[in-house]
Each structure stands twice: as structure tokens, then as C-alpha cells.
Amino acid sequence: xxxxxxxxxxxxxxxxxxxxxxxxxxxxxxxxxxxxxxxxxxxxxxxxxxxxxxxxxxxxxxxxxxxxxxxxxxxxxxxxxxxxxxxxxxxxxxxxxxxxxxxxxxxxxxxxxxxxxxxxxxxxxxxxxxxxxxxxxxxxxxxxxxxxxxxxxxxxxxxxxxxxxxxxxxxxxxxxxxxxxxxxxxxxxxxxxxxxxxxxxxxxxxxxxxxxxxxxxxxxxxxxxxxxxxxxxxxxxxxxxxxxxxxxxxxxxxxxxxxxxxxxxxxxxxxxxxxxxxxxxxxxxxxxxxxxxxxxxxxxxxxxxxxxxxxxxxxxxxxxxxxxxxxxxxxxxxxxxxxxxxxxxxxxxxxxxxxxxxxxxxxxxxxxxxxxxxxxxxxxxxxxxxxxxxxxxxxxxxxxxxxxxxxxxxxxxxxxxxxxxxxxxxxxxxxxxxxxxxxxxxxxxxxxxxxxxxxxxxxxxxxxxxxxxxxxxxxxxxxxxxxxxxxxxxxxxxxxxxxxxxxxxxxxxxxxxxxxxxxxxxxxxxxxxxxxxxxxxxxxxxxxxxxxxxxxxxxxxxxxxxxxxxxxxxxxxxxxxxxxxxxxxxxxxxxxxxxxxxxxxxxxxxxxxxxxxxxxxxxxxxxxxxxxxxxxxxxxxxxxxxxxxxxxxxxxxxxxxxxxxxxxxxxxxxxxxxxxxxxxxxxxxxxxxxxxxxxxxxxxxxxxxxxxxxxxxxxxxxxxxxxxxx
Length: 726
Description:
Elements: H1 43-56, H2 58-78, E1 83-91, H3 104-112, H4 117-124, H5 127-135, H6 139-146, E2 158-161, E3 168-175, H7 178-236, H8 243-282, E4 286-294, H9 297-316, H10 325-346, E5 349-356, H11 358-396, H12 400-435, E6 440-444, H13 457-482, H14 489-496, E7 500-505, H15 522-538, E8 546-550, H16 558-571, E9 576-580, H17 588-592, H18 600-604, H19 610-613, E10 615-616, E11 622-625, H20 634-638, H21 641-653, E12 656-660, H22 669-674, E13 679-685, H23 691-704, E14 708-716, H24 719-722
Helix pairs in contact: 2-13, 3-7, 3-12, 5-7, 6-7, 7-8, 7-12, 8-11, 8-12, 9-10, 15-16
């Protein structure tokens, strides 16, 4: 059905141009999301769009914020408190020994104290050291601070740090008890010191054993040489030699002493090398970094069985003595279950993570130093031995008696020098074993801090506030993007390419009456005045007389809108007729408080005349034609010739005839009326009408060919309209 009243040259997809300065082209503008309003975007428009979005989604924002804050605060407040203790030590690295020092204790101290700060940090984080330190804690502290009676943990809650540009290493321990945290941190440092001292002591003991052996040999040789010298002097009658020969003997003694010392140092370096080589073979290149234990299903079953048996025993103790057979039977079952539990724990599956052992690097460097020291000592011994051989050749040229005395005197001097050197080394090694300095010294002991570091209530509240706000805003944006309701007039214009005549504000006090009532909100009255002005300016020339007001779905507010529009136009001095053409669910008579016994349906059925059904509205210039009693077939009545004839007569009697139509979707009444009128106004509800429904309604009107004079955006949540006070 095509509307015969459609003006020539009028395209329904075009906006009706306004007169004069109000003219604007009917070119649809692009729309992006719900935040472009069919006009160039400005900062104020964008800000207003987001403000409207926040207002629409206020319930979602508030609910999400409250739920996230409640859940976060509940989790934060129910977490067990954690305490932190910090112990600090000063790393005192020495220069690496070159192997040519005269003090064996210094060489050993250097060999065991060449660790850098980074190496010391790795050693402190070694699982072996941590296991040993943790095992030394009392079981009560392990239970209070770490919730385990085991002698080791799979993952230790520690942090090893080094303040920048310092040789200080800090050990931070976090536990559920402040005393446990402090004790564990201090125990880690003590265990590290003890290990360092034990390493020094072991090497010094081995070196002392060698020095003592050499000292015994030297002492025996010295006594024998002195005895031989005294006997030779007595037999030969030579008491002494001249100064030249004595100097030669002294030089030979010095060279022999240097050779013996170099050989002794080479032997010590070799012994140290062998010790370090043995340590390297015993030290694994990798260590266990973490152990993740998987529960044995049998273990879980046994634990449940033990718990049930203990509950049965507790209930039986209320009736029987501990010596009763029933109690003994339960105790025997518990003992058997405990044995099965021990077997299951032994077969517990484990996942082991390995890491590089930091001790290997330290031992390898010491091993290299020992090799260098051995080679250097051997080289010095060879040189001294060669020089001593040359001097022996000179002494061999002396007379036999002088040669013999010179060699014996040289040997005595050599042995005396060696004996003194070995005694000094023995004393130095004794001091090194019992008073050697560790590689690091504690400078600050950890103390229990009663203030927990977690949960941090102020920081948690700030973080939760930010997180809850972001989640609430994000959810609001997502919901608003997925919402296909037409919340703003600008969005409505951008999507449809049609002019919005007015945005009617949503009335908060529930007012649903006429704008002529005294209790009508000023903002609503002013909005209908704007609608009247835009409506009259939007009319074609010649002005259309019959105009239908419809909507996509029921409940969009078309009846209230057309009732107030008719009253507003009548107040401007025009003769207006308001016809209720919704014979399925009539409502105009309810709005004006009129009788609906006779109306349009009775006229079209020929049971009454127009004058008999016409009623006064109480507003000057406005007449009302109710729908009448609901007819069995409204579409057939509207499509009858009587309806067309009635509208032709009314065009001559009134300046404007407004028809309240049925919704356009799923009903044919609106389509029939659209073919009979000269224009249509579509009412769109902000909170009910969806984009697909509106597009369907507009497409139906376009197919009929009725000019769409404009759209009315009803129940607008535009904050600018709500803030107006008049």
C-alpha cells in the first residue's frame, strides 16, 4: 500500500528541511559506537557523551566497585600476617694469592677468602646451606613461622640483596612469626660463617700435618749434622776455616735453604691441589634449587582414615575407659594406618629443579691458584739447586779437610734456617686453625619486628580502589557498547539520518499527566513547547493536516506524547483534533479522563455519527475522538472506505489532526494508517527502543511512502536536560 498523500519530489530518507536559518541538509553522518552524535566531535561533546554513559551505567559501576572492594578487603583481612626480619653482613674479600708468599697461613686464608659479593650471595642462597640453617631451628619455630615440622622447605621465603656500591649483603626472611623470621635470618649467617671457618680449618690441618712431618725430619737431620761436624773437627784437628771459606759455606747454606723452602712450598701447593681436586670431585656441578612434592593418593586416603579413626576414638572415650577393648582396637587401627602413612610418604612423587652450584666456581679458581703456586715453587727450587751445585763445585777445589768442614757447616746453617722457617709456619697455621677470619662478618643481627609487612592495609585499600574503579569503568564501557538502546538524541540522528524534533526528559516524580496540569514539571512543559515549534517548522508547504504518531513497540510513550503535543498545539491558537486510532489498547480517554463508550470504532461500524462521538478535552481548541469499544477486527475498520472519507472531512474542519496509532512492529494497523495520513512522527524511548526495532519501523513507513516528519526522543537521560530547573 502506497500513500497517495505523499508530496511530489519528497524522499522519505531525507530530513525535512527547516525554514530560513534553521535549514540543514539531510545527509546521514557516520557513527562510531555510541559516542559520536551525528555532528563534528568537540571536546565538550565527547565529555558530555562519557558523562551520559557514566550516568546510564551508574548502577553497574557502583555494584561492581562495591563487590570488588568487598571481595578484595575480605581476602586482605583474612590473610595470615607475614613478618620480615633482615640480617646484614659485610663481605671482606682479599686479593687472590699469587702463590709466592712466605706465609703459608696467609696463602690458605687468601685461598678461602677470595669470594666476591656476588659469589657470597649465591652461596647464601644455596639450598644446602638453607637446609642446614633451617634444620637447626627448633621445631616449635618451624611450626609457628613456616607451618611445617619438616627439616627442609621446597621453597624458602628469603631474599638476598646487595645495596648498590657497598660490600654489604642483606638476608631478608619472611615468616608468619616475627621470632621465627629473625632466628632463621641470623641462623643463615651463622651457618655461612661456620662453613667458611670449617673450610679454612680443614685446609690448615692438612698443611699443619705436612709441616710437622717436615719439622721432625729437619730436627733429626740437624742433630745428626751437628754431631758429624763435631766428630770431624775432633778427628782432623781443624777447629775452624778462614773467612772466605766460611762465606762460601754460608752462601751454600742459604741456597740449600732456599731450595728446601721452595720444595716444601711446592709440596704444600701439591697437597692443596690434591685436596681441592678431591673437593671438586665430591662437589656436584649442579644443586637442587627446588623440590615440588606431589601428594600420593594413598597418602590422602590414609590421612582421611586416620582422621575418622581419631574421631571415633574421641566419641568412644565418652563411654569407655582407655583400657577398654573397643579403645584398644581403635588404637591398633590408628597405629597400622600410621605405618601405611609412613610408607606412602616415602614413596611420594617429587619434581626436582636443579641449578649451577656456586661452590664449583670458587673451588676451580682455588685449584688453578694451587697449580700456579706448585709450578712457581718448583721453578724456584730448580734455580736454587743449580746455583747450589755450582757453589759445591767451588768448595770441592778446597783441601779435603776444609772441604768437609765447609760442607758440614753449610749443612748445619741450612738445617737451622729450615727449622726456624718450619717452626714459624707451624705457629701461623695453628693461629689460622683456631682464629682464622671468615670471608664475611655479621654487622646487623635480625630482630623480631611485631609490625607485619603483609597484609599492608593502606596500600591494599589504595590498590583495591584503583583496581575496582578500573574494573567498574571497564565493565560499564563494555555494557554500554553492547547496549543497542538509543540513549541520546545525537546517536539517534546519527544512526537514522533523521531529525530529532525534541528530547523529552525522564520525569523522576512519576508524573504521567498533561502539560496543562499545575503539577507538570517545568522542564517537561518547555520540552513540549520546543516539540511544537520544531513540529510546525518541519511541516511541508502546503502544511499537512493529518499526522499519525507511532512508535516501534508498545510502551515507548507515544500516547502520552501525542496527547501533550495536541494540547500544546491547541494552546497556540490552532484548532486540533486528537484521534485515538489504537483500537486494540486505547489510552487517550484515560489521559483526558473521558468516556470511551463511543468513538472511532462505532463511527466506522456505522453505529454513530462523528458529532455524537466527539468530546471536549477541557483545553480550548482541542477536540477528542476516543477509540470507542474495542472492535473484533481493527485493521479491517481502518482500511474501510469510511476511514478515508472521515479523514477527508476532518482535513477541512481542523488545522491539525493527530492520530494515535498502534506500534509499527507485529501489527498492521500502523501500516494502514500510514497510507491514509500526510505525515508521521515516530516516538523512540531511550530505555526501551532498540536499534533493530527502530530500523524495522522506519523501513515499514518508507515502504508505505508516508513522509516522516521527525523523531521524538522520549525519556531522555541527558544530564543537561535533567539539570535544568526553569
